[in-house]
Design a protein that fits this description.
By secondary structure, the chain is mostly helical. It has 4 helices and no strands.
Length: 74
Amino acid sequence: MRYRARNFPETLADDERQRWHQHCAARLHDGAGGALTLARYAEIIDRLAEDADEAQQGLLSALYDYAEGIESSL
């Protein structure tokens, strides 16, 4: 099911899509299964940004934006 959800989301029925979103939210918000949470991810980026040069700041900003995009899709 996870393979299909990641690679062929259009093949999911409504109940499967809901289950997939719940699975993703549990991992990204609660750290289910030992996953890195979005909050911890943002903390790491913030810590790295303290010593980053301008080019690195741009990359870290893009990574932060990526995480926000994932969060808004849940």
